[in-house]
Amino acid sequence: MALADIFTRPAPRTARGPAPVSAEFGKRPEIAGAGMADLIAWVDQIAALTQPDSIHWVDGSRAENDALLREMVDEGKIIKLNPEWRPGSYLARSHPSDVARTEGRTFIASEREEDAGPTNNWIQPAEIRDTLRGIFAGSMRGRTMYVVPFSMGPVGGPLSHIGVQVTDSAYAVTSIGIMTRVGTDVLHQIAKGKHWVKTVHSVGAPLAPGEQDVAWPCNDEKYIVHFPETLEVWSYGSGYGGNAILAKKCFALRIASVIGRDEGWLAEHMLLIRVIDPAGRAYHVAAAFPSACGKTNLAMLRPTIPGWRVETLGDDIAWLRPGEDGRLWAINPESGFFGVAPGTGESTNVTAVETLWGNTIFTNVALRPDGDVWWEGLTDEPPAQLTDWEGNAWTPDSGRPAAHPNSRFTVGAGQCPQIAADWETPEGVPLDAILFGGRRATNIPLVVEATDWTHGVFMGSNISSERTAAAEGTVGELRRDPFAMLPFCGYNMADYFGHWLKVGQKLRFDRAPRIFQVNWFRKGSDGRFLWPGFGDNSRVIDWIIRRIDGSVSAVDSPIGRLPRTEDLNLDGIDVPQEDLEALFAIDPASWLREADLTEEFYGTFGGRIPAPLQAELSALRYRLQRA
């Protein structure tokens, strides 16, 4: 018997089976208030539609969470890991058809199609409501419906918002408990009349009487539907975190972006860090990068410059609000990390690895014989034997990945060894800088500073990564991801650009965060990366902060302000002068082609792009033609 079997086998059942968690937990709290009555009525309405066997009101306690995890282990739905290596941690294996966000089945059901815009999948609200009523009818038969009250941001905080998710997935409940603040405190907020967002989720796998459940219930038919006018989310058919933890991308970005538009703030796909210089001065930086562009690594950066420190405030989402002091304030509305495991290792992100010491739910990673987990990139050499993410025997000669490329870890942010002591401060932190970045082998310099807020919004609207043509040293086909929000903006993206401009008008010109574009991925003509990246990206942050302080000057270029190479702190690393020059080289002809691509992209919005951004594009062309 392998050591892992001691921890991963389901507990033996009695003839009656284990006592359900709802026998000890799950009673509806007795809380008075008109808002609570409305919530109860809504829950009863969803229950009448979905027909669960029971309703469990989640209290968010550690004891309840432990009981849910034990029940899932007993049912064979998750695997308890060896507590010697990974205490309080579990492994889930999804169905092979349910391993990622289903963007093709993600819809914005705004009343008018133009309000969704060309970058979203629009669907007519009345039509999709009929469809959802049909597929949700009886969808929770044989299951428990959990009622999960949650807060994005500290409960009661001035920048926080609350919601309730009903779900028939205990896996979703335990994940929501990590990613948000769950508990009865939220119900008291609702009872007092605070607005809350309605989110409904079902795996779409009802059970007939006596039918045996499967380890990962889901349905081939999937819908993730957002209603921006009524601030609702309905998700059907998927148990995967990105589709089932509705507080995350669905609420905290798509719905929150709509709330932010209406209330005058921004919900952004951004990391949030505090950078502390050798003199102890603190600066706050938010950064928006598309996937595979180094976002998590920057969120947990360990600077290679002596005396510098980075404290993590958030790794994925930031809510930004103009303050009465003319500054832009930011919070991380989440309480956990839902990160991609492959590529996370001691050589790439030791902080993330140290965060995962325990109390973590892993999904679709490989299992070691000793009851711990492994994935590609965790160590340089793979173990000799593993059980892969589908439960099959695996060796390095198997010719397939042991962990799914989108396998995940879900862990509390408080476990991060670099987490800021005040990361949960309800008021948030004032931003000094905003960074935009993509994966560009050509054209985009290592760092460039926007000349003002409008120019910075123009930069953000053009964030993109190159496809394979970039390897040939030309501006290839660009995968557009403006503000890293392409899959997550809940309304017309041209209007979203305009909203960024409006938010800037609420800030004092001398207190607004400075905006920069960075690119760690520029290559030389030989295909070699020109910049070492990872911890050495702190050298770019160092220059950015010295620009904010006014202690270094910059060089004006047609695309923005560039560093003087002698102002970069390169002590301890070897970057040849010719590489430095290539990192900041501006080719006007190539940039004019880039401007044509921008015009083409703007054209997809049917004349809705704000006039100031069109003016920025014209000014860019003028400067390039004169260069």
List keywords for this structure.
single chain; about 625 residues; alpha+beta; eight-stranded mixed β-sheet; six-stranded mixed β-sheet
Give an overview of the whole structure.
- Mn(2+) binds at residues 249, 269, 316.
- The active site is at residue 293.
- With 627 residues, this protein is α+β, with helices and mostly antiparallel strands.
- Helices cover 28% and strands 20% of the residues.
- The protein contains 17 helices and 31 strands.
- The strands form 8 sheets. Strands 1, 4, 5, 6, 7, 8, 9 and 10 form an 8-stranded mixed sheet that branches.
- Strand 21 (386-387) and strand 22 (393-394) form a beta hairpin.
- Helix 3 (62-74) packs antiparallel against helix 6 (170-179).
- The longest helix has 17 residues, at 34-50.
- It is globular and about 75 Å long.
- The protein starts with a helix and ends with a helix.
The main sheet comes to: 8 strands, mixed
Task: Estimate what percentage of residues fall within beta strands.
Answer: 15-25%
How big is the Rg?
A: 25 Å
**Shape assignment:** globular
- Unreliable runs, pLDDT <50, ≥5 residues? 9-19, 468-474
* Portion in helices: 25-40%
Q: Can you count the beta strands?
A: 31
Query: On the 0-100 scale, what is the average pLDDT?
Result: 94
Number of helices: 17
